[in-house]
Amino acid sequence: xxxxxxxxxxxxxxxxxxxxxxxxxxxxxxxxxxxxxxxxxxxxxxxxxxxxxxxxxxxxxxxxxxxxxxxxxxxxxxxxxxxxxxxxxxxxxxxxxxxxxxxxxxxxxxxxxxxxxxxxxxxxxxxxxxxxxxxxxxxxxxxxxxxxxxxxxxxxxxxxxxxxxxxxxxxxxxx
Length: 175
Hints:
175 residues, globular, alpha+beta
């Protein structure tokens, strides 16, 4: 992913389209409309969450290269969605109740005219059963949105969580 330096204006059409994409995506995920969500992804999607460590002096170097909580492609994401529809999705039985709060959306030019790099903050609320406290997962997403046949699609997502130790039972939900 190219280094983004010049932020696009908030009033630009590209910013509005990217922000709308993120709001619609969050709503689909919260409603568990995963088939529709998969239609918002490119065929070559890269969907990952790198492992983060705590360093004493700075945040620089806090991401471990080559280590991810998940690193998925379209095939593995599709398989996860298909599994949710079976009796074998134990991590989501009963289903999680989620809310994706997306904020601080900033857009930058991508590698080509058809791509926009979008940075946003995510607060994910997740409730399961009635016996556990809810989970909160917070971090920054760096997305690449690509214009394909007149539609914006998610081509890449890197979710950098703010915590080094995740306090959730599993990562069965989508970020």
